[in-house]
Amino acid sequence: MNDQILPIGKDNDGKSIPKFLWSELKPRGKWLTPFNIISIPVICIGLVIIVIRFWKGLGAVTNLSQEVPWGLWIGFDVVTGVAFAGGAYVVTFMVYILNQQKYHSIVRVTVLNGFLAYVFYAGALLLDLGRPWNVINPIIGNNFGTSSVLFLVAWHFMLYMIAELIEFSPAIAEWLGARGARKILSGLTIGAVIFGITLSTLHQSGLGALYLMAKDKIHPLWYSEFIPILFLASSVFAGLSMVIFEGTISHKVFFDQISEKNHKAQEGIVHGLAKICAGAMFAYFFLQLLVFIHDKNWQYLNTPMGYWFLMEMIGFVILPMMLYFYSYRTNNQLLIRIAAILTMLGVILNRLNVTVIGFRWDAAVRYVPTIMEIVVTMTVIFIEIWVFRWIINRMPVLRESPEWAKKEN
Amino acid sequence: MDGFTYNNIFETKGIEYLAIIAFFLILVPFWVLLNRQVKISKQIEKALGILTSSVLKVPQGLFFSRLHTWTHLEKSGVAKVGMDDLLLHITGEVSFNKLIEPGEKVSKGDLMAEINHKGKNLKIYSPISGEVIEANPLLSKRPEILNEDPYLKGWMYKIKPTSWMADTNSYFLAEEASDWSRQELERFKDFLSSSMGKYSPDNANVILQDGGEICDQPLSELPDEVWQDFQKDFLSSKTLCHNANCFRNRE
Amino acid sequence: MSIDRRHFLKIIGLAGASLAIGKSFGAESEKKGEVEFKAMLYDSSQCVGCQACEKACAAAHQLPEPKDEPKVGIIRKTSETQRSAINIFNTSKGEVFNKTQCMHCNEPACAAACLTQAMYKTKEGPVIWRGDKCMGCRYCMVSCPFDVPKFEYHSSNPIIQKCDLCYDRIIKGQIPSCAEACTAGAVIFGTRRGLIAEARKRIAKSPKDFYEDIYGENEAGGTSNLYLSSVPFNEVGFKTNLQNTSYPALSKGFLYTVPSVFVLLPPLLLGIHEATKNKPSNSEENE
User: Fold this and answer.
1) For residue B77, how many other CB atoms are within 10 A of its CB?
2) CA C16/CA C84 separation, integer angstroms
3) Domain ranges in chain A?
4) For a tag on chain C, would you pick the N or C end, based on fewer CB atoms within 10 A?
5) What is the ipTM of this complex?
6) Which of B6, B9, B13 sits opposite C123 (nearest CB)?
7) What are the distances in angstroms from CA A159 to CA A83, A197, B24?
8) Spatial separation of the C-alpha atoms in residues A225 and C139, rounded to whole Å
9) A145 and chain B: CB distance < 8 Å anywhere?
């Protein structure tokens, strides 16, 4: 897909910052790409649906009920989307804490992805709230519901967005030509990384802890006291699989921006990530097995939900794990990518099982999302990709930093 | 919980979160302070790295003074003076402040220049007596030449000597200069270890690497206190008063 | 249900007497200085299904009066316009009524779940919803084991609807509207301590007429809404598989771990960072 005739972005070189920003606002590239043709109508319809949602209430666009108050927007956008953003904390851990410079070239784009994911999924959360204007209440202290896991998750989201912004800000400073700012921000990186990893650990598991009180409402095959730890473990390989997936696409779409050296390094990076995913999934599978034994869940296996559970475990945990293992040993790039997609589907399936499918599986009217809910979800994802594309085409994320910044390193 | 009155199992959560915020606010200065003192002795440790005398270039035909300056009498009868390679490798990249002008008369041991690295200075004394003919114009434009080529392009002054034989009588030449350079290097390593002992908070941490090598430009990252000590031990008249050839004391 | 005249007069007499003295039980047994939980006892053996409580509740809270009647086989639920609902069940001992509403748990899951403390357990006992703080996240609905809070899905400014034990009346010294309206003496208001004692007394007096347990004594860690029934509770629509410890205790383990992680993980990461800082980094090699 090298037919994009986008001029590669250039950083600000002495121009005043407002003038530079103004010139950067102009759109670049072709308008009628396949992605644009699909995404623009969906976004337009989605925006209309969002207006209806605020005008007529949640019930007008969703299938939520008094028995199933959280549906696709929470179960998929927030709980699953945040799992995929977990690549940011794993990669920064490897590069800044473990000093594995091999992955240094993907840090910026992964952190950017993580930041955008949190911003947009926190945004999606606002759509789901009944009274979004009161969302400042837990922030300003009216009141601080410290007994609530959701309070913790909400605050962590906010703090983590700030930490990611700090981690990403040197790229913005390079783009704007702000040398002094870049120096200060680079000094803050290690602190932001450590803070970010701590926060991530807690809120990835916190998303699971949200459901701890719903003990009688979630099917026993997916409910246990260990949901937080399972979510934390799965966020590791969910995030890395997303990094592989997104990296594959970006390398094709933004081909011209990436330096020769980084192109060659990409295969090695994907290969290394495959190894980590294989190991993480191995541990995760045995964790699931331990929980299974602890709760004596074999009694549920011979039921429809039991078969569904087995399919998730075997088809979407064991199978991709073995694919990663095999493709790592044989260095088969195509198989690694297939394993990544299977893993991501497995994580989506697991998260939806806990939050939506297994939640009140015994209700008289099973919850199924409306088309409108799906369209709004797609709208949020498409807008995020648009912003991502805007940033990649301008800031030094995939392309090399300007010379003065490289010297300082 | 007796079941009849209000009981909150999460009562202290708010205060706990405040304690965590305090923890983070204190952790940052705590960590910075913890690392700072150690940095000096860490750097000196690093300096006990890989600066070997094989890196040093000691060309023949030059006279070396004990204060790490050289002088070379040209066919024209004018002598060039400059700093030696060992000194410049130890300090790292420096800039050059000339302190004497053409036409001035200098005596051996007079202050002739200062070299400067990130605010830290060393005083350089003249190895010969005579009249200053010229200061090297290249050095003010491109001070890095001092480090790149200290014996040829990086000369500091051209001086017409008035007592060449007497002045250079005790200086090193050829083989002797090489040996002396190696000895100075060893002496410098000892200097580094004792500096580390002086500035490290825990003297038991002094690690002498016998046979260990120094890394390039060891002084460049060390603080001013170490530079002042170096001036005293290697570049001043105190250095010279070990043997009978003490010349006039001039600070 | 066949009653002879004597039995009927006895019941009316008892009802009248309990109307006079029995609506507030145990007001004397408050410890000095410490406020005890107020509670409500529903004795289904007294209930006649007249729905006076439902109508009084609707009137007191500006809600539409419920038009349908309890019918065997149909479960009437509370909703965003109804705080309490009477149902009738065919049981092993004939037709029995039941009253559904918020259980006002001792350690409510909804109040622990609420991140703005809009759901709030008052020290008097009732769990109330404070609308000025609520942001409509519906986490209380996810957490409540009894599925009590109801959400206005068709409003652009939605509220949560649930029984609040007429808290505004209680602090003024009055009793809830349903307790006041009940002429059969099935809905009784008092302190939790007093009502449990009263319930035990009733069971002890005629053990054949009552199922031996009080629903709400231990369920979910104990609730302020207590139930007596002549048949086992699962026959009258109650959930009987709930745990006997409070639901917030389930997330206690996680919330208690959070500060430890906050304090231990950053120094650990700093330490690893220092340890790996000077090593020659792994660059460009294929492992």
Assistant:
1) 9
2) 24
3) 31-408
4) N
5) 0.89
6) B6
7) 17, 11, 13
8) 18
9) no
Q: Which residues make Cβ contacts (< 8 Å) with residue C207, sequence separation at least 6?
A: none
Q: How many Å lie between the alpha carbon of A229 and the closest alpha carbon of chain B?
A: 22
Amino acid at B171: Y
Query: Which residue in chain A has the smallest CA separation from B8?
Result: A147
Per CB-CB distance under 8 Å, the chain C contacts of A195 are 266
Q: How far apart are CA C82 and CA C80, in angstroms?
A: 6
More confident residue, B12 or A169: A169
A97 contacts in C (CB within 8 Å)? Answer: 269, 272-273, 276
- Residues paired with residue B172 on neighbouring β-strands, in sequence order: B64
Domains plus CATH for chain C?
41-236 (3.30.70.20)
Token look-up 């989605």 returns A46
CATH 1.20.120.420 fits A31-408, yes or no: no
* Closest residue in B to A141 (Cα–Cα): B14
Collect all residues from B whose CB is shorter than 8 A from any CB in A: 8-10, 13-14, 17, 24, 28
Q: How many residues in chain B?
A: 251
* Residue at token pair 């002739």: B112
Whether A208 contacts A86, CB under 8 Å: no
Q: Please tell me which of the candidates C37, C246, C263 has its beta carbon nearest to residue B4.
A: C37
Q: How far is CA A131 from CA A298, C133, C140, in A?
A: 43, 10, 14
Domains for chain B: give ranges and CATH numbers. 9-251 (2.40.50.100)
- The closest CB to that of A101, out of C155, C258, C283, belongs to C283
Whole-model pTM over 0.80: no
**How close C253 gets to chain B, by Cα (Å)?**
11
* Residue A198 and residue C262 in contact, taking contact as beta carbons nearer than 8 Å: yes
For residue range A159-179, list pLDDT tens digits in order.
Answer: 999 999 999 999 998 888 888
Better-predicted residue by pLDDT, B55 or A341: A341
Instruction: Calculate mean pLDDT across residues C93-116.
Output: 94
Tally of helices (H runs) and strands (E runs) in chain C: 8, 10
C91–B contact, CB cutoff 8 A: no
Could you give the CA distance from residue B47 to residue B190 in angstroms, rounded to a whole number?
A: 12
Question: Does the distance separating the beta carbons of C192 and B6 come in below 8 Å?
Answer: no
Q: Min CA distance, C197 vs chain A (Å)? A: 30
C-alpha angle C102-C85-B5 in degrees, rounded to nearest 5: 20
Mean pLDDT across chain A: 90
C169 interfaces chain B, CB cutoff of 8 Å: no
Q: Which chain A residues are closer than 8 Å to C139 by Cβ?
A: 148, 150, 210
Nearest neighbour of C106 by CB, restricted to B1, B17, B23: B1
pLDDT at A278: 94
Element (H, E) at B234: helix B224-234
For the segment C244-286, what is each residue's pLDDT rounded down to a tens digit?
Answer: 999 999 999 999 999 999 999 999 999 999 888 876 554 444 4
Tokens of C166: 């007429």
Residue C18 pLDDT level (bands cut at 50, 70, 90): very low
Instruction: List, as ranges, residues 27-56 from B with C-beta within 8 Å of C.
Output: 27, 31
Tell me the β-bridge partners of C89. Answer: C96
Mutation for testing the B interface, residue in C31, C37, C127, C224 having most B CBs under 10 Å: C37
**Three-state secondary-structure class, residue A265:** helix
Nearest to A146 among B14, B24, B28 (CB): B14
Phi-psi region of C62 (alpha: psi -120 to 50; beta: other; left: phi over 0): left
State the CB neighbour count (10 A cutoff) for residue C49. 18
In tens, the pLDDT along A193-233 reads 999 999 999 999 999 999 999 999 999 999 999 999 999 99
pLDDT: which is higher, A274 or B46: A274
Rounded distance, CA C8 to CA A258, Å? 91
Q: Does B3 touch chain C (CB under 8 A)?
A: yes
